[in-house]
Amino acid sequence: MSDFRLEVFYTVAKRLSFTKAAAALFITQPAVTKHIYELEQQYDNKLFERKGNKIQLTPAGELLLSHTESLFNIYRNIDFDMNALVHKKEGILALGASTTISQYVIAPILAGFRKKFSAIAINLMNGNTEQIEKALLDKEIQLGIIEGRSKHQEISYTEFIRDEIVLVCGQDHPLAKKSELSKALLLENSFVMREQGSGTLEVIDYALKEIGMGVSDLKAEIHLGSTESIKSYLMHSNCLAFISIHALTNELQRGTLRVIDVAGLHIERHFYFIHLQGKPDGLSEVFLRHARLTHHLK
């Protein structure tokens, strides 16, 4: 339904590369150049300018990008609403999920959704909470599921499911058979930590402050970017780590990792659906309803 020239412009604006845009759209680079030139003639404004070997948006380009994103959202909603009249639900949903959710929570939800709504394609972006929030603000995704506390006024946060973050060590760790650690003993041990920007790290820091300390007080031996790498590291070291209980099902069943309580410390959080302020678009609403129903029936 949209003007193909606007699709070309949007693709170039998001990639800041005529070559990458041509590859993404399966057209030639001269064709990309021609479409951009025609838009510039139509609006009597340059949309891109060169900075050395790179291009960047002009103020006119930034304005057109903003309108194009809004227009494409309208087109998506029109397609959804019109298809709904004939009992069809189809389109493409750009979804983002932070690391723990994408690895341990979302797969069965996605599988069930695809069985029920086979005409809705899903493009899933993975990243930490900070990256998923940025992708939403940049309108690269329509809906996100994240771990962490709300920050941005432009984003609407809706509770999804509850999570607990627990202290974990390998089965051969000297503390593996201890039922509870004191705060002092916590400070004496080394930790495997998540990277900055992780929603998990933020929640841990918030909870530790309740018992008079913070993440910066813990001895970090190494920072790793995924829960799987953290679990593997724990099995080969004398470190501790805070990990979501959702990520530990297999290891706790096999006994390769152990959970240790910390006196006075209980770390609970929610996973959140996020969308830009206002009513979510039609496809996002369908996915939200499905995900809530899936969790409710568990």
Automatic annotation (TrEMBL):
Q: Residue ranges of the HTH lysR-type domain?
A: 1-58
This protein's record includes keyword Thylakoid: no
List the keywords (alphabetical). Answer: DNA-binding, Transcription, Transcription regulation
Q: Which domain of life is it from?
A: Bacteria
The record ties this protein, via InterPro entries, to:
LysR_HTH_N, LysR_subst-bd, WH-like_DNA-bd_sf, WH_DNA-bd_sf
- Pfam families, per the entry: HTH_1, LysR_substrate
Q: Which PROSITE patterns match?
A: HTH_LYSR (PS50931)
The GO terms describing molecular function are: DNA-binding transcription factor activity; transcription cis-regulatory region binding
The protein's matches in PANTHER family, at most eight in alphabetical order, are given as: HTH-TYPE TRANSCRIPTIONAL REGULATOR (PTHR30126), HTH-TYPE TRANSCRIPTIONAL REGULATOR CYSL (PTHR30126:SF39)
The UniProt entry's sequence similarity note says: Belongs to the LysR transcriptional regulatory family.
**Name by which UniProt lists this protein:** Transcriptional regulator
